[in-house]
Amino acid sequence: MGCVKCGAELSSIDTALHRKLINRGSTEFMCVKCLSKYFNVAELRLLEKAEEFKKSGCTLFTDKK
């Protein structure tokens, strides 16, 4: 599965951020780079937010093993 905008391979952070920020029920996803362009924010800021969501207990960001 790849990013719907650029085709890049997706990580679990990419899919979790997309679900958190766009639509929890999404089945297609954007990578962090494309999300940063979509929201006009730095990629680093999105990664910081992902860490905040994870620390706050958001289950979208739990490590799945």
How does this structure look, described?
With 65 residues, this protein is an all-alpha fold. The protein has one domain. It is built from 3 helices and no strands. Helix 2 crosses helix 3.
How many beta-strand segments?
Answer: 0
% residues in beta strands: under 5%
Shape: globular
Low-confidence stretches: none
Task: Find the structural class using helix and strand composition.
Answer: mainly alpha
Compute the CA-based radius of gyration.
11 Å
SS field, number of helical segments: 3
Question: What does the largest sheet look like?
Answer: none
Element string (H = helix, E = strand):
HHH
Number of discrete domains: 1
Report the mean per-residue pLDDT as an integer.
Answer: 93
Distance between the termini: 19 Å
Roughly how much helix do the residues carry, as a percent range?
40-55%
